[in-house]
Each structure stands twice: as C-alpha cells, then as structure tokens.
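Continuing from the previous page...

OK, I double-checked the sequence for ABC transporter ATP-binding protein against my notes and this is the correct one:
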Amino acid sequence: MNVVEFQNVSKYRKDFSIENLSLTIPKGYITGFIGPNGSGKTTAISMMMDILKFDEGDIKLFGNSHKDPNNKQKIGFVYDDLYMYEDFTIQNMKAFIAPLYHSWNEARFQEYVEKFELPMRKKIKKFSKGMKMKTSLLFALSHEPELIIMDEPTSGLDPVFRRELLELLQEKMVNDNQTIFLSSHITTDLDRIADYIIFINKGILLFQKSMAEIQEQFHVIKGNIEMIDDDTKKLFTGLQLTDIGFRALFEGDPALFEPFEDSIIIEKASLEDIMYFMTRKEI
Ligand SMILES: Nc1ncnc2c1ncn2[C@@H]1O[C@H](COP(=O)(O)OP(=O)(O)OP(=O)(O)O)[C@@H](O)[C@H]1O
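Thanks. Re-ran it with the corrected sequence; updated structure tokens here:
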C-alpha cells in the first residue's frame, strides 16, 4: 500500500519546473529522496504538504486528496527552520501544539525531551541548528504520525546524534511499521537506512527503486583508459577520465565485463557514485 502517490504532477515556474512527476511512498518503509541542489525536492515536499500549488496532475495522501484537512493529523513534518517559534520555549510551544493533535502522546513527549537533552525553558532563538532540528523532531514524534516527512533532517546534526537518529528511525519503522520519507544530501545515511530511493534532477524523476535493485543494477567500473572508445563509452551512464584511467557508472548486469575481469575493477556503486555520474555534465 502507498501512503503517498504523485501522478504526473507538474509545476511551472519562470526558471524552474517540476515536470510529470510520478512517485510513490510505500507504507512501512524508509524512502530516501535525493537530487542535487535546486533539483526540486523541497518544492515536491511543499506540494505534498499542500503548502504550494501545482499546475497539473494529482497527489494522493493516505488514499485521499492531499488537501484533506485530516492529513495534517497523520503527518509529522520535520525541518530545522523553526522561525515561527523563535520567541517561544519548548514549554510554550507544547501548550500551543499539543491540543492540535488528537493522538498527542505526553509520555512519549517527555521521553524524547530527555533523550534529546532539550531545555524546556530556553527560547528557541537561542538554540543551535541541531537543537532546532531535535525540537522539530520531538514535536513530530510526539503526536505519533502515520507518516514522518523530513527535509534534510541530518544536515545540522553532529555525527553521534545523527547516528542515533538513524537508529531511532529504523527502530520506528521495524517496531511501529512507521512510514518515513526523508530528503538528504548525506547519501551515506541513506545507504545505511533507506529501503527505497527516489532520485530527481532538474525537476524530473530519474528513478524510483528499492535499495536491493540499486545494489544489483549499479556498479562502478574502473580500468585503463585504452579500453575507452566510442563503442565502450555508450555502455556507461556516466564516465570520468583521468590521465591514467577511467571510472564509469554501469547500469545492468556486470557479467558483461567478465571477459575483461583481469584488467578492470568492478565495485557496487554507492548512492553518491550514482548521483555523481548521473548528474554531472558530459565531458
Ligand atoms: N518561492 C520560490 N519562487 C521561485 N522559485 C523558487 C522558489 N522556491 C524555490 N524556487 C526554485 O525552485 C528550484 C528548486 O528548489 P528546491 O528548493 O525545491 O530544490 P531542492 O532540491 O530542495 O534544493 P536543495 O537541495 O538545495 O535544498 C530552484 O531553482 C529554486 O530557485
């Protein structure tokens, strides 16, 4: 079952468009959303959250219109920009936010305040970026949402809390069948926890695949530069030449390269490799 479905969604702006975007977020999994700066991730999330209008297509949340007012109850949205609440403390924010949610879980709220070591009575404007992210996460988790949407959640966090957060998310997925959608530039985080990846570039979907498919289908091939000619170039999705050799992304069955196995190295591609080769300019 899908919690979110985009069907041919287009949004036209003067100098940037999302075109014919179709994607799904499956229930009970962690889906990572990747793409270079300015590729349209935040725009897509804003359309999903009904903060931004689109021109064509359709978005469904929980099988209903994305405009259904009940959706807000079921979504925990995590972002580091708590500018609306700068003069508030966590205590004030709770008084304001908790009554908005039918499923507010006070015990869980207290548990996360302690776990994240957040001060209840300090003004949000005096928080560090990481503390703001933790605060956003605290409120999102405390109303027990069906879907957690996170825009760049790990970017401002120190490595220790980043890893703890990833573990927490994975735990919630495994134990509570939680659906999590997160955009991130830290692709190693997604290599570690994502079940599915949605990859966009310049407002267009490049692919939506499971991590198992990605690991099976994408490889980095390294070898001597003499192997590269007009015919071999066509085999690769992306190619990087240096003075002594080449690195290339290959999509398909790597058995094709078995005859050359003495002169090349074949490695599984990381998400960073895939992003690098699929979005860099042609050489
Ligand atoms: N309010 C706006 N009005 C006009 N253009 C905008 C607006 N917000 C964003 N854009 C443009 O839309 C494009 C996509 O931006 P978006 O923030 O969705 O990308 P992103 O993939 O989230 O990028 P990043 O990884 O850098 O956060 C960019 O070219 C940006 O300049």
